[in-house]
Amino acid sequence: MSRDDDVLVTGLGALTPLGGNAADSWQALLDGRSGITDLRERQDDWPEDLPVRIAGSVSVDPVDVLGRVHARKLDRGEQLAVAAAREAFRDAGAPQVEPERLAVVVGTGIGGVLSALGQDDLYERSGMRKLSSYAVPMLMPNGPAAWVSIDLGARAGARSPVSACASGAESIALGLDLIRLDRADVVVVGGTEACLHPFMVAAFAQMKALSRQEGDPSLVSRPFDAARSGFVMAEGAAVLVLERAGFARARGARAYGAVAGAAVTSSAGHISASDTEGQVTAVRGALRDARLEPRDIGHVHAHATSTPGGDLAEADAVVKALGDHPVVTATKSMTGHMLGASGAFGAMSALLSLRHGVVPATRNLDVLDPGVRLDVVSGENRTGRWDAALANSFGFGGHNVSLVLTRTT
Description:
Layout lengths: L6 E9 L6 H10 L4 E3 L15 E3 L5 H5 L1 H4 L4 H16 L10 E7 L4 H14 L8 H5 L3 H10 L5 E2 L7 H14 L5 E8 L4 H9 L29 E9 H6 L6 E10 L9 H15 L8 E3 L6 H15 L4 E3 L2 H4 L6 H15 L1 E2 L15 E2 L5 E2 L4 E8 L3 E8 L3
Parallel strand pairs: 4-5, 4-6, 9-10, 9-14, 10-12
Antiparallel strand pairs: 1-7, 1-8, 2-3, 6-7, 8-15, 11-13, 14-15
GO molecular function, one term: 3-oxoacyl-[acyl-carrier-protein] synthase activity
Pfam family, one: Ketoacyl-synt_C
Family: Belongs to the thiolase-like superfamily. Beta-ketoacyl-ACP synthases family.
């Protein structure tokens, strides 16, 4: 039984390469399906000279969800965020909360880069008169949070963490703080990203971060596998509704679980390399915040992007902070890396694993890297009963976020 001051998750929403809603995305994870495809199937004019031609595109067009009139004012990342937030709020039962007690925290790693590049191209070709009057709101990183707050009438603040690939997870941590500090009763939290553009793919490829593996796109993202060669870019959005337990109970809301603890750290080292010690600090901080011990964590949803160094750094951090007993999964093997949305989707997946007693198998894990001393689920899903899970999320710039999720009865 939760206490009145616990923070519950009462609603889920998602648009991912696996599904147009949270339930379909979760079922696809259980089915072991991949959402990674050839970009040339999506864009006929995708440059043939780029070394990377695969990515994870959302399976449902957000324009179809929002309607063309409203969607044309929004960047694609904003469209994804609003669609996912509407689903999550509806899934929570559309809580009747005073606008001044309803907050929004939606992060993004990059912001409206599609709009920025598209509007710049339009300006170069046709001049100022052709620019959209919404060009600035479309490219602002705070745009997704702002549009969600407008859509839901939330007046307790619209915050926008921009911490690279940790943005979605940091949004959940900030939402947890807002409820604990009594600044809101309900907070809509999550992350969004839409940057599948030749420029962005070329930029990440130039960093040697993306896999250039040829062949079947569904086999390329392979976290913790000895043959992994880099991550696969993806777009998507994931949104959760957080509520003070007393408020949720008073209205008879159903809960998926609770956010029991969070920690945000910065490695203050390399701009893009993973740092084991910074990650260890985040995991231990989240445990302290949740008042749990390492042995209490039964499941870990790993950040695990499928990069050679990043996966090893995280594996070492988990062993140092928790030991080798938790059951681990890496769902980016199926979704690809949704950047600013990935941390929120990871937390959502971890919560559902606790609720349903099943951890999705990591796809494409044929040979576990000998340097990974973890119980990574592969082949078949793992069933069991776990009371607490850890969801990790790390980003360029040394951003480290760990979340502790717990099962509720």
